[in-house]
């Protein structure tokens, strides 16, 4: 079954962040066209209306099942369709995952995000990850999972296990989805997002820029995210990490100002969402990251590894936060 954006907008009874308006692509393009400093200023104002701009949410990622994915996403080092030299692994042991989660918590992360290189989980996978989720949750961390497309009932099982967030990205402009991914449709992603919402999970949904898209196509991606109703609680904006062996290894670099513009436009169109400055930070100078925080980013992936690629060291990130007078958002578990 596929669910259109309009149907998704209507079906939502719970409205954590009801979208105040329907965003047309041309309106979002107009934001991108603003003079750079006007755009950043406007985004900073919106940020301050809804958040304490000194607080940054910290999520640590762990790949619990790496490589050998049957999907052919052109950006991804874990796809079995590309030769990236990545070793396919079986699922990690619960004890090893818990060890990583404890370290993440001790270093100040509030959320632990677990990723698996699946098209979607099998019922037995859902049982296994449910055990893992419950154990991580009992440490007092928020939990997030990104396991691909979900079948009927799976989102409820994950919710019952203690999952707080499900990450499922729209990744690129719906109009060019099949230029980048050929093994599924944009509508399949919308269908899983509907199931995630329906189960009462919080939604983490974003995309990737720097995949040779045009500015109108970046606007199309942001429109597809901002028109989810309710809007996602968390919006990861990833800059493509170019991995040798993937079809996008030689993608053209995006100018840093265009990345900051994308963050600013996400902030303005999704005022109450946490906008995460996500993959690609390892290649971003501190001043560029500071500009992203000014433009409304208020979350990062924290820890020296993303799923399979490098991320800045925790020590460096703590020093950067100190220099910018930013502090980690605290999580207070209920009960
Ligand atoms: N297989 C599941 C899925 O695709 O939803 C979960 C894991 S997948 C690796 C999660 C997300 O990682 C993708 O949706 C994409 O946004 C991001 N990602 C993958 N490779 C990336 C890369 N090279 N650069 C930036 N982001 C990437
Ligand atoms: C998201 O939007 N970005 C993260 C997380 N959600 C799962 C993943 C980034 C992956 C970057 C490439 C890698 O390390 O394999
Ligand atoms: Fe598989 Fe997810 Fe990578 Fe696509 S992005 S190849 S679905 S792990």
From TrEMBL:
[4Fe-4S] cluster binds at residues 69, 73, 76. Its EC number is 2.8.1.6. Its cofactor is [2Fe-2S] cluster; [4Fe-4S] cluster. Binds 1 [2Fe-2S] cluster. The cluster is coordinated with 3 cysteines and 1 arginine. Coiled coil: none annotated. SMART domains: BATS (SM00876), Elp3 (SM00729). Residues 54-281 form the Radical SAM core domain. The keyword S-adenosyl-L-methionine applies. The keyword NAD does not apply. [2Fe-2S] cluster binds at residues 113, 144, 204, 276. Gene3D superfamilies: Aldolase class I (3.20.20.70). InterPro entries: Aldolase_TIM, BATS_dom, Biotin_synth/BioAB, Biotin_synthase, Elp3/MiaA/NifB-like_rSAM, rSAM, rSAM_sf. CDD domains: Radical_SAM. Pathway: Cofactor biosynthesis; biotin biosynthesis; biotin from 7,8-diaminononanoate: step 2/2. Pfam families: BATS (PF06968), Radical_SAM (PF04055). Keywords: 2Fe-2S, 4Fe-4S, Biotin biosynthesis, Iron, Iron-sulfur, Metal-binding, S-adenosyl-L-methionine, Transferase. SUPFAM superfamilies: Radical SAM enzymes. One of its GO terms (molecular function) is biotin synthase activity. Catalyzes the conversion of dethiobiotin (DTB) to biotin by the insertion of a sulfur atom into dethiobiotin via a radical-based mechanism. Homodimer. Belongs to the radical SAM superfamily. Biotin synthase family. HAMAP family: BioB (MF_01694). This is Biotin synthase. It comes from Uruburuella testudinis. The gene is bioB.
């Amino acid at each position: 079954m596929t669910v259109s954006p309009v149907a998704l907008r209507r079906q939502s009874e719970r409205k954590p962040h009801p979208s105040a308006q329907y965003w047309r692509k041309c309106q979002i393009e107009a934001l991108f066209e603003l003079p750079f400093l006007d755009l950043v200023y406007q985004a900073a104002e919106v940020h301050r209306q809804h958040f304490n701009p000194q607080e940054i949410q910290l999520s640590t990622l762990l790949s619990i099942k790496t490589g050998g994915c049957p999907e052919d996403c052109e950006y991804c080092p874990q796809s079995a369709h590309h030769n990236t030299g990545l070793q396919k692994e079986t699922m990690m042991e619960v004890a090893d995952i818990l060890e990583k989660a404890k370290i993440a918590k001790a270093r100040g992360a509030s959320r632990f995000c677990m990723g698996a290189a699946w098209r979607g989980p099998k019922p037995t996978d859902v049982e296994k990850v449910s055990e893992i989720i419950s154990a991580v949750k009992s440490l007092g961390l928020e939990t997030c999972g990104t396991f691909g497309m979900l079948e009927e009932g799976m989102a409820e099982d994950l919710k019952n296990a203690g999952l707080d967030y499900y990450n499922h990205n729209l990744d690129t402009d719906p109009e060019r989805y099949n230029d980048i991914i050929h093994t599924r449709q944009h509508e399949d992603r919308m269908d899983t997002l509907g199931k995630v919402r329906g189960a009462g999970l919080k939604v983490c949904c974003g995309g990737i820029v720097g995949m040779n898209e045009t500015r109108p196509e970046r606007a199309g991606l942001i429109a597809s995210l901002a028109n989810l109703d309710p809007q996602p609680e968390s919006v990861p904006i990833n800059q493509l990490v170019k991995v040798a062996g993937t079809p996008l290894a030689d993608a053209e670099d995006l100018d840093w100002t265009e990345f900051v513009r994308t963050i600013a436009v996400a902030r303005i169109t999704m005022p109450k969402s946490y906008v995460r400055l996500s993959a690609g930070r390892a290649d971003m100078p501190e001043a560029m990251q500071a500009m992203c925080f000014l433009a409304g980013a208020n979350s990062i992936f924290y820890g020296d590894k993303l799923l399979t690629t490098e991320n800045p060291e925790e020590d460096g990130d703590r020093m950067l936060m100190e220099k910018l007078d930013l502090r980690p958002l605290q999580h207070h578990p209920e009960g």
